[in-house]
Structure formats: structure tokens, C-alpha cells
Amino acid sequence: MTFPSPSWRRRLLALALLAGLAAPALAQRANILFILVDDMDVELPQHMPKLRRLLAQPGASFENNFVSLSLCCPSRATTLRGQFSHHTGIFTGHWPDGGFLKFHRDGLESSTVATWLQGAGYRTALIGKYLNGYPNVEDGGRSYVPPGWSYWFSPNAGTPYNQYSYRINFNGRTLSYGKAPEHHLNDVLQAQANAFLRDAAKTPAQPFFLVLTPYLPHGPATPPPRYAEALPWVKAPRTPSFNEADISDKPRWMRNRTLLTAADMADIDAFYRKRRQSTLALDDMVESLVRTLRATGALDNTYIFFSSDNGFHQGQHRLKEGKGWAFEEDIRVPLVVRGPGIPAGRKVRQLTANVDFAPTFAQIAGVAPPEFVDGRSLVPLFAGPAPARWRQALLLQSPTSLEVVPEAGNPGSEAGVLEPAEDREAAAANPVWKNHLYHGLRTASNYSFALYENGDGEFYDLETDPYQLANRYKSMPPALKQALTRQLRTLRGSAGQALRNAEEVAVGRRP
């Protein structure tokens, strides 16, 4: 009996995936490399030529990709489980509303995309940031490795956000790193990922699932020394919404914001420069990993995903810096994918989100995800005509409390490993938190709609107002307001297949 050549096996795999067939029946299943960066809005990848050349040009760019809750830990929980935050129960980065401690104690680690793929025979690896608040001395301690991971390399002490002076849990053994230039965390994670890829190539019959989660460009966004003096001329983009002139139409939590001062804008520019410098290092990371995959012969059989856990604003709507709101800067994130069967230069315009990653990885691996999953596989968007039915509205959710010094709210956690305090200065200025709690929709018809617990609302027609300058909630057509409100309530009350069905109802369709 003769067996298909590797190239034909790859073609068969791609056809099977696109047809929705079970991949394990094939001779060779695809590898998955998922690069999930931290706090990257969609503007920054425009300055990553290696990402464009190596992933976007030979693969697919998802042009309407979002996160449902724009905050690190809730987003990562959604990515691991394929559930919206009102089903994971993770709304912040710290106890009792979120963080590693809640995710762990609620038993959510028992069923994640890692456990599904490991159970299907994949060699699974996480290299980099896990969930905010990991580890916890009361729940496994520094040597704890969550279920589903065959290979673990994640900071467990020190100050990894600063890129120096941290410790790493390497498969249950702690390694220490100091302040030497070669200890810059991003470069250490890159080297470890390449080592994993080279080791995985020794057993090509076993596919791998590698989740690489660098801390950059999250603040303080310390770049490697080679880029510390780069880009001296750059400044944050002055979009039409930057230091917005009139915010009297905005929700109450925003109306007390004063115009940004010259000092504020200088701070924004300085931080933006560091984020851009950090982006150069992330571009190097993409190039290095692709080079290793090519050298080991695994590139043609590997899906590579590049995305971010949330977006980031810097000066838009008078908000100095941060995330967590329903504005496009916060919820829209990059997504590019290359891999078997994906045609070069493909543009995907359907509404996609972080809730879709887990079911996508499951389908690539030939695994049926649990019924609790809310998201949908992106595989049908990889090639061929668009599906007849797809999401028409994405549920948006807000954090449930301020991210203020979360170290103080997570018992047993290691200081410095948790998310640093966010500068959500607008919320801090008005402590009535119900003014900031919202649920909303981002629709395929380019509407942005949000309802606040205090009765405020937001509505933007993004086709005519892409920078969300004019809140038309009070003057929007009553029938459209009622329809969007009903859709929002339906999505909040649904789960699994029922939620996906409800998403496909086209509400507020344009004439």
C-alpha cells in the first residue's frame, strides 16, 4: 500500500477542516501556534512589517475581530473556555470577581481548550502569561501547573510586567532571572518557544498546540535594550477623537473629564513610543518562530494565529490610557492567521471574537467542544465562500469593579505578578460604579450600542461616525432602539447553541 505524500496529507487535512470533518482520522493533524499579545490595539500591527509579510500576506486578515470584555483576565478566560464572561463569571483580574483564584476555585480549569486538545493527543504548551493572579500560595503554590498543559513556562514571582527580575515556573521547577540584558522576558519567552518547536519536531507524528503569551506591549512596555532608543520621533496618533472637543453627549461617567493638558499628551506620546518599541520586539518574535517552523519542516502543517487579549486607548475621548470601555479602540483587536488551506491575502469581514478561539482550535484538532461553549469555529471562514449564516451581533460586557491595586484584593498572590493597577481615571473620579456598568452590542451592520446600569445609553452609527464622536442614543429611531435592546436581552439570557442562533438574527439591518 502506498501512502499520500506530506503535501497531499496537508491538502486532505485542509479539505477535511473546511468541510467540518474529523481531523484525527487523517494521517497527520495540523499543529497550532497561538501568539496572544497583551493590550495591542489594531493601530500597532500596522507597524509590524514582518507580521504582514509572514502571516497576513500568505494568510488571512480578520478585519472585524473584537473582544467581548476589554480586560486581560476576562478575555483570557473567554479564550480558554469559549464562553462569554457572564458564563465564566470572570469580570476582572482579581478576587472575588475574577483572576486566577476565581477561575481555579470555580473549577473552570477542568475543561479548557488545553484539556480538550491534550485529551485528543496533542502536546500542549503555554509559554508566558497565564491568568492575572497566578500563582496563588493557597491554591497550588508556585509549582502549580493547570490541567491540560504538557509543557509549562510561566512567571510565578517577581515583576514580569517590567520584563526583568522575575521567576518562572518551568514544568514545576522555579527558575530565576535578573536584570541582565539577556534576561529581558520577551526574548526569554521567544527562545523558550523556539526550543519547544525544535523539540516538538523530533516527534512529528504528535501534533502540538503552543500558546505563546508575551507581556508586551502592556505597560510599562519596556522594550529590549536593542530598541530602547528607537523611534525618537513617534507620537500617538491624533485621531479625530483624540482629546475630543465636546463630550457633553457622552455617558455621565465621562462628562466630568477635562481636556488633556500638554503634560498629559507628552505622557501619552512617551508611553506610545515605548509601545511602538515593544512592537518591534514582537515583530522579531513572529519572524523567529516562522524561521524555526520552516527549518524544522513544520511550517506548512501549522496554523499560526496572532491576536491580542484586548485593545487600548491613548487619548481618545479625553481618556488618557487604558481599556475596559465599549469604544472601538478598546474592543477591536488584530487577528491574522496562516495555515493549511488558507489562501494568500484573504480578507475576512465577518464579525469574529475571542470567544471563537477555543472552538476553532477544537475543530482543527478534530475535537467536539463541550455544549457550554458560546463561540463558533472560524474554520468556515478560512477559505471558499462565506457561510450562509453567521454572527450579526456580538455581546459586549463591562468589568464589574475598578482595577485598582489588584494585588490587595487577591489573597495569597505574589505582588508584581498580577496586573498592575490600571489608569481608569474617569471611573476613579466618580466612584458610583453603576455609572460605569454596561452591556452592549457591536453589530455587523456597524452599530455600537450600550446600555448602562444607571439608565445612560450610547449609540453610534460607525459608517457615518467611525470615531464615535456623536452619541445618538437619545435621538436614535425608537424602533431601532427597541430592536437592539431586545437583541441585547436575548443574548444576555442565552448560552451555547441558543446564543449562537440568537446572534444570527440581523437586528437593525440597513435599508
From TrEMBL:
The keyword Signal belongs to this UniProt entry's keyword annotation: yes
A Pfam family hit: Sulfatase
Gene3D superfamilies the record matches: Alkaline Phosphatase, subunit A
Post-translational modifications reported in the UniProt record: The conversion to 3-oxoalanine (also known as C-formylglycine, FGly), of a serine or cysteine residue in prokaryotes and of a cysteine residue in eukaryotes, is critical for catalytic activity.
Keywords of this entry: Glycoprotein, Hydrolase, Signal
Modified-residue entries (3-oxoalanine (Cys)), positions: 72
Stored InterPro entries: Alkaline_phosphatase_core_sf, GlcNAc_6-SO4ase, Sulfatase_CS, Sulfatase_N
CDD domains: G6S
Sequence ranges assigned to domain Sulfatase N-terminal in this UniProt record: 31-367
Signal peptide start and end residues: 1-27
SUPFAM superfamilies on file: Alkaline phosphatase-like
GO biological process: glycosaminoglycan metabolic process
Keyword Electron transport: no
One term of GO molecular function: N-acetylglucosamine-6-sulfatase activity
Family from the record: Belongs to the sulfatase family.
PANTHER family: N-ACETYLGLUCOSAMINE-6-SULFATASE FAMILY MEMBER, SD21168P
Protein name: Sulfatase
